[in-house]
Specification:
alpha+beta, 6-stranded antiparallel sheet, 4-stranded antiparallel sheet, 21 helices, 10 strands
């Protein structure tokens, strides 16, 4: 079966290379009559990838340990759901899953109305670029990262999935990220193809739905990943600026910047070359994300470690950047229009885009700092969360403030609704004063929270002052996303600076006071199961005054297949206000248990805001007639 699956990938690779070469020659020679052959090649390559993927999925379901990949990701105690999700749990499987989405996306796009609206020459350039990208991933899978290696003799049991991945987040988080990464393949190839072909029809408009879906999926994956970290790793927080977390965030900044500049091109016809570059850059940063997590260049708690894919990934980024620059500056710009003043809606959109790009640059620089620091030091130097928080939080606060005032500005400049602008300024000042009076003494937290609440007030006032917006699906989508961002920023403004955390050692019956809450250690138990070599569970009763709020059951686990590592299972008492959070650290000889407990104010508004961003994003999708 391994050989059959490998031949399927090899067949797809050869077809992709052939189709890319024929498409490039046909575009150069203006031979539109060859296009059907290339389109059939796209379908044939996708069939090869789907065929091989099904073989791997069946091998996982059957726990066929003659597959090296199955042995490394699955064991006999692993539940069936996690056995299937192991498809994307390892390096080789995740790359195959990514390529599978790219291949299927190519077939879907082939039959979409937006593809049919492209000019013939643009279609040829598109296939030349798209099939080259597909061939690159297939080259990785048939060379450096082959998921179909054979293990002889086949063992009776496997090593098992990393315990960090045995979480419901594993079912959704990686697929959503890969849907986002792969989703950007279509608009990136279309942007470069349209620019190289000199097509007048706007690729931004034609690929609008692809861009929105890619952004929604990537956003959902990032938000779910933050929740996963919060609930699984026991850090006590949702974002530790770990390289793997940053890897998915970096292309999100670029893709979000593009969504703002794309509005300017659609409304005013400006920033055409900027949008081509940003789209190409976003896809390259998706490759860069893979490079960070699979090359071993940066050490992290849950990277895949060093592998042979680092060199080809790096080369692909260099080649891709060169192609992006060629497509950006050599492409024909049909409409040349200058932007309006800075104090206009266009100016604020550009400012927002620059803020997102600046955040992306800061996060990239901080993530790569251990590598950069080796240029002048024998030891690599890493940057901790304090660096990111000091630099990124001011940018986020300013972004939300821009969201609050931008709707009151006109496209060409000036204030289009004075009452709305004055109302927004009044809410900002009033909210800041109230927050300060309530004890929020940290200026950045006050500014961020006041900006977030002002943005919420602005959205409400817009729907009051402009009744037509109430029946506009696009308005609900745009401002629903911004409402989600505001709520997310509100959660960050409170949960970070005003979180209180302590490590305590408690005997049975002892209590600890944490803000207004009393945490009492009730009991603990230790046991073992076929899956766990040892498991320690602590029970804590939480009360406020005379009111009992509930019980916490945090765990410390040692898995049989990973005896040298300890894993935390978090327990929380959720709330829209203060969330109580606890993890077990260990137990001493006298039976006292060590806990890390914290009070996280408004942290759940981060998940609420992130969910709203994703759900309202679907309202921005247009019917195919509206797109064309």
């Amino acid at each position: 079966m391994q050989l059959t699956a490998y031949i399927g990938l090899l067949f797809a690779l050869l077809i992709s290379l052939f189709s890319a070469g024929v498409a490039a020659w046909a575009a150069w020679s203006d031979r539109d009559d060859i296009k059907p052959l290339i389109e059939y090649g796209n379908i044939a390559a996708a069939m090869g990838v789907v065929f091989s993927s099904l073989i791997l999925l069946m091998a996982l379901a059957a726990r066929n340990y003659s597959f090296m990949y199955v042995y490394e990701q699955v064991d006999n105690t692993l539940s069936f759901v996690y056995t299937l999700t192991a498809f994307w749990g390892g390096r080789e499987g995740s790359l195959l899953f990514w390529e599978l989405i790219i291949a299927v996306s190519g077939v879907v796009y082939l039959y979409s109305p937006s593809y049919k609206a492209l000019a013939p020459r643009t279609k040829l350039y598109f296939w030349a670029i798209f099939m080259t990208i597909q061939a690159f991933f297939l080259l990785l899978l048939t060379g450096w990262s082959n998921p179909f290696m054979t293990l002889v003799p086949a063992p009776a049991d496997g090593r098992g999935l990393n315990p960090l991945l045995r979480n419901p987040g594993m079912i959704f988080h990686p697929p959503l990220l890969f849907l986002g990464f792969a989703g950007y393949t279509i608009p990136a190839a279309c942007a470069l193809a349209s620019s190289l072909a000199g097509e007048e029809k706007s690729w931004v408009k034609l690929t609008r739905n692809w861009n929105i879906l890619a952004w929604v999926f990537l956003t959902a994956g990032i938000v779910l990943g933050g929740w996963w970290s919060y609930m699984e790793l026991g850090w006590g927080g949702y974002w530790a600026w770990d390289p793997v977390e940053n890897a998915s965030l970096i292309p999100w900044f670029s893709g979000t910047a593009f969504l703002h500049t794309a509005l300017i091109e659609q409304r005013r016809g400006a920033l055409q070359r900027t949008n081509v570059f940003l789209m190409g850059l976003t896809f390259l940063l998706c490759i860069f994300s893979t490079y960070l997590t699979r090359s071993g260049v940066i050490e992290s708690l849950h990277t895949f470690g060093e592998s042979g894919v680092s060199a080809p990934l790096f080369i692909s980024m260099v080649v891709g950047l060169a192609l992006t620059l060629i497509g950006t500056f050599m492409g024909e710009q049909h409409v040349k229009r200058s932007l309006s003043d800075f104090m206009s809606r266009q100016g604020m959109l550009v400012a927002a885009a620059w803020f997102f790009l600046a955040l992306g640059f800061v996060v990239t620089l901080g993530t790569m700092w251990p590598v950069v620091s080796k240029l002048w030091s024998t030891e690599s130097v890493g940057l901790g969360p304090d660096f990111y928080n000091r630099v990124c939080l001011p940018f986020l606060s300013l972004l939300v403030f821009v969201f609050a005032i931008c709707p009151w500005l006109g496209w060409r400049g000036g204030i289009r609704h004075m009452r709305g602008m004055l109302g927004a300024c009044g809410v900002f000042v009033g909210t800041a004063i109230v927050l300060f009076a309530l004890g929020m003494a940290k200026p950045l937290a006050v500014f961020g929270a006041a900006s977030a609440l002002t943005a919420c007030a602005t959205i409400v006032m817009l729907f009051v002052f402009y009744p037509g917006m109430r029946t506009s699906r696009q308005s609900w989508g745009q401002y629903g996303i911004h409402l989600g961002v505001a709520l997310l920023a509100l959660g960050i403004a409170f949960s970070g600076p005003y979180k209180e955390e302590r490590e305590v050692l408690l005997a049975k019956g002892e209590s600890v006071q944490l803000q207004d809450y009393t945490l009492t250690f009730v009991n603990s138990r230790q046991d073992a199961t076929p899956e766990f070599k040892a498991r320690l569970t602590g029970v804590i009763e939480v009360s406020r005054g005379n009111e009992k709020l509930g019980l916490l059951h945090p765990e410390k686990r040692i898995y049989r297949n990973f005896p040298r590592q300890q894993f935390a299972e978090v327990s929380v008492i959720p709330s829209l206000g203060d969330e109580i959070y606890a993890t077990v650290l260990g137990v001493d000889e006298s039976g006292r248990v060590s806990f890390k407990v914290s009070v996280n104010p408004l942290v759940n508004w981060i998940w609420i805001g992130g969910t709203l961003m994703c759900l309202f994003g679907f309202l921005l999708l247009k019917r195919h007639r509206e797109v064309i």
